[in-house]
Design brief:
This protein is 58% helix and 1% strand. It has a two-stranded antiparallel sheet. The protein is globular, with a radius of gyration of 18 Å. The two termini are 28 Å apart.
């Protein structure tokens, strides 16, 4: 997630590939008049199967968010700390104890997820803790459509964020989240493990069986979707996940940064009592 640099590598690299693979040949032109850009995106979304009702509710009157652009320009997407410095700020006794308590509380759920997806519970709970303090922390307060429309109109990564905007509209179209609940962080990341909309569409799992993929409120959906991303990326149960292993490389789909993946592994080991 863009609130701290590591999530940029995970979500946006994936999103770029998805956008290139599925984006319209007639992408909306970045820059220029914002309302004209939004009108082009509206037409593109409807051509991709998003209803006029959804596009109207989501995009009518949408405005640029200067704070999002300012935040985006401040990002450097790199780490300036050593692993020891970074992990000391992210994995402390309180978070370890909280994670262990959740391993017990959700033991049956995590067993089902392990059996279906082959990703160990300690890795999933570690990611959950790092991304949102197990859903209790900051998962973003910005309207996702406004954020993504702003970034898509900006010419620096317009193709990438046009793809994310279309994916966000599809989340609403599918009925996974109502528009009022499509709230996220500074690059449109959504939910307790901070999925960009394209990843939400690609990896989201309705694991509580209510007919919707809800990565903001449903712990089963959050953890199963996170497991599905890692499983799809090649993570293997029972294999080591330290630096240099195949599982460590599989976690690159979650986050490119070596220091962040090492932190996931370190946290998982602490949760396992190692």
């Amino acid at each position: 997630m863009l609130r701290h640099a590591p999530m940029f590598g995970r979500g946006l690299a994936t999103a770029f590939l998805v956008c290139l693979a599925s984006g319209s040949a007639q992408a909306a032109r970045c820059g220029g008049d914002f309302n004209s850009f939004v009108a082009s995106m509206t037409a593109e979304a409807q051509a991709a199967g998003v209803s006029a009702g959804v596009t109207s509710a989501a995009l009518s009157g949408v405005a640029q968010d200067g704070a999002v652009l300012a935040f985006d320009r401040r990002q450097r997407y790199t780490f300036n700390k050593s692993f020891e410095q970074y992990v000391s700020t992210r994995v402390g006794p309180g978070r370890i104890n909280g994670g262990k308590a959740l391993l017990q509380r959700h033991a049956a759920l995590l067993s089902r997820i392990e059996q279906q997806f082959g990703v160990p519970r300690t890795i999933l709970v570690a990611i959950w803790g790092l991304e949102s303090d197990f859903g209790k922390g900051d998962i973003g307060k910005l309207p996702v459509i406004r954020t993504l429309a702003t970034l898509a109109h900006d010419c620096r990564r317009t193709d990438l964020f046009q793809g994310e905007l279309l994916a966000a509209l599809k989340i609403v179209q599918r009925g996974d989240l109502p528009l009022r609940d499509l709230i996220g962080a500074y690059a449109g990341e959504i939910g307790q493990t901070q999925f960009l909309p394209s990843s939400y569409i690609k990896y989201g799992v309705d694991f509580d069986g209510d007919g919707h993929v809800d990565l903001r409120h449903s712990v089963p959906d959050v953890l199963a979707s996170t497991a599905n991303l890692l499983h799809t990326s090649g993570f293997k149960m029972g294999q080591p996940y330290g630096e240099g292993t195949a599982n460590f490389e599989a976690m690159r789909e979650w986050n490119r940064a070596v220091i962040y993946r090492k932190t996931i592994g370190y946290f998982a080991d602490r949760l396992a009592g190692q």
